[in-house]
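quick one
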Amino acid sequence: MSLVQVIHSGGDTALFESISNDIIEKGYSIRPYALPENLALLLSQHILELPSEKFKRAGVGRSKDLVVNDFIRTDEISWITYQGAASCAWIDWADSLRSYLNKHLFLGLFSFESHFAHYAKGDFYKTHKDAFKGEGNRVLSVVVYLNQNWVPSDGGELVIYDKNLSASAVIDNRKVTVVPNFGTIVVFLSEEFPHEVLPAKRDRYSIAGWFRLNNSIANNIDPPR
Ligand SMILES: O=C(O)CCC(=O)C(=O)O
Ligand SMILES: [Fe+2]
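structure w/ fe (ii) ion:
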């Protein structure tokens, strides 16, 4: 057994089942502290050790029209390739989630792309969707957080807008707020949920990834808007 297999062998089925059930029920899943701890530790150590030149300002738009836009997002990203123990363990874990979801939800997920993300203090990503109907082939978005000892007053929440939640006459609370705690996993249908990242008071580390229908379009594609 390789190191990578040891890291996430067993124990994932119950988690995958809850994610799958959440998706069926609501279209999204928020699972606090759910990423296997070894994997979360390996990834958080790796992201902190990544040299700063590996990170590039994230763009907005499709490959050839990709532009950096300070009004929409200010984070830096580093695309993940199958190199090194941490990245391989992550891609393998995502692949086992992909095959579970394909068996249980018939989503026809074909490939996976993901990047490390670093939001420095004050960085944000304004409300956007990760895919548009008929346009993208991103089906399912996955985000995991790698921040140890995060407290709610650090900010940096992910806000997911869910038009199916009930709103009262007094307060429009049709949104779900996720604190980017260590090991928290968020999965949602890419075309369905606008979402945004609020500015944080400290460095915020995460991985964002997308399961796609096929990989006919080159890598390094970012949300259209
Ligand atoms: O980091 C997050 O909470 C979400 C990031 C995101 O929405 C994206 O990269 O598309
Ligand atoms: Fe997004």
